[in-house]
Design a protein that fits this description.
- By secondary structure, this protein is an alpha+beta fold.
- It folds into 2 domains: 88 residues, Roll (Ubiquitin-like (UB roll)), CATH 3.10.20; 229 residues, Glutamine synthetase/guanido kinase, catalytic domain (Creatine Kinase, Chain A, domain 2), CATH 3.30.590.10.
- Helix content is 22%, strand content 26%.
- It is built from 7 helices and 14 strands.
- The strands form 2 sheets. Strands 6, 7, 8, 9, 10, 11, 12, 13 and 14 form a 9-stranded mixed sheet that branches. A 5-stranded mixed sheet has the order 2-1-5-4-3, with helices on one face.
- Helix 1 crosses helix 2 and helix 2 packs antiparallel against helix 7.
- The longest helix is centred in the middle third of the chain and has 21 residues.
- Pfam families: Gln-synt_C, Gln-synt_N.
Length: 340
């Protein structure tokens, strides 16, 4: 049987924003199942996850995807564990309280394709600025859309790998794009988002382009980049009650700082109250309100208050595991009665 490449992928210990790391393990007689992926280890002293005198960290496989860009290869998403197999402090996935997969998450992952030669987004001239934003959102044409070849290749790779990407679009700023992921289960949603991010990084690498995850890569009158978190659980999907939705939304207003702490670095630069955001120190919710902290989608209302909510505050550089974990904690803190 041919040898198989297993690309073990994990999140490092850098703060305030973790980065993707990966390395390849060659195995024989691989059965193609997650259970066939052995536990592995790495040098945590090189990723700010351990001291040099006790540097081993463990990699626990948690999700498996075929790798369409390499021969005889798979992508293995992993959690980082301590040597005693307890979750490492950098392991956000292990904090998610959703073992029954009751929570469904859809992440709208924005990012900016960055030209390393000009140190600006693709589509920005070497000096000065392009035309003001407005013409770039969901655009087409060489004067409006920049980096489409990367975006399209990335989409194809995700679909071939079995990553549940539900769509892509050009965003409001030149060189800014978005993809959306969805899964029935918070951990799985995080897995799919991180694998999609990994494939994007590797695709852009081939073109010599940087993926800039910063939430406000260009200062001034330009939109920042977010990772809007659309979420539901059985309560939200069956509530049939505006009162239930209002009660859950109000619970988020009591823990503003707890959410902001895990919603991404430098988010104060993006959450200003402008450019389709609420101010970082305020909380609001409203139907179809893209300037609110939490938007109640109009589809939820027209479906008889049965649907989902969108937290618009997470930044593009936030860890979807940690975002989901905090949202679940807040929703579960609420006691509501639902008539079935």
């Amino acid at each position: 049987m041919a040898k198989v490449k297993l690309e073990y992928i994990w999140l490092d210990g850098y703060k305030p924003t973790q980065s993707l790391r990966s390395k390849t393990k060659i195995v024989d007689d691989f059965g193609g199942n997650l259970a066939d992926c052995p536990m592995w280890s790495f040098d945590g002293s090189s990723t700010q996850q351990a001291e040099g005198n006790s540097s081993d960290c463990l990699l626990k496989p948690v999700a498996l995807f075929p790798d369409p860009d390499r021969k005889n290869a798979y992508l293995v998403m992993t959690e980082v564990l301590n040597p005693d197999e307890t979750p490492h402090e950098s392991n956000g996935r292990a904090t998610i309280d959703d073992d029954d997969d009751d929570f469904w998450f859809g992440f709208e992952q924005e990012y900016t394709l960055w030209d390393p030669e000009t140190d600006k987004p693709l589509g920005f001239p070497a000096t000065g600025y392009p035309a003001p934003q407005g013409q770039y959102y969901c655009s087409v044409g060489a004067a409006n859309a920049f980096g489409r070849e990367i975006v399209e290749e990335h989409l194809d790779l995700c679909l071939e790998a079995g990553v549940n990407v539900e769509g892509i679009n050009a965003e409001v700023m030149a060189g800014q794009w978005e993809f959306q992921t969805f899964a029935k289960g918070a951990k799985e949603a995080g897995d799919h988002t991180w694998i999609a991010r990994y494939l994007l990084e590797r695709t852009a690498e081939k073109y010599g382009v940087i993926v800039n995850w910063h939430c406000k890569p260009v200062k001034g009158d330009w939109n920042g980049s977010g990772k809007h978190a659309n979420f539901s659980n059985s309560v939200l999907r069956t509530a049939g009650s505006e009162e239930v939705y209002n009660t859950i939304c109000q619970a988020f207003g009591d823990v503003i700082q707890e959410h902001i702490e895990v919603y991404g670095a430098d988010n104060h630069e993006r959450l200003t109250g402008l450019h389709e955001t609420q101010s970082i120190d305020k909380f609001s919710f409203g139907i179809s309100d893209r300037g609110a902290s939490i938007r109640i989608p109009v589809a939820t209302v027209t479906n008889g208050w049965k649907g989902w909510l969108e937290d618009r505050r997470p930044a593009s550089n936030a860890d979807p595991y940690k975002v989901a974990s905090r949202i679940i904690k807040t929703v579960k803190s609420v006691t509501v009665e639902v008539s079935v």
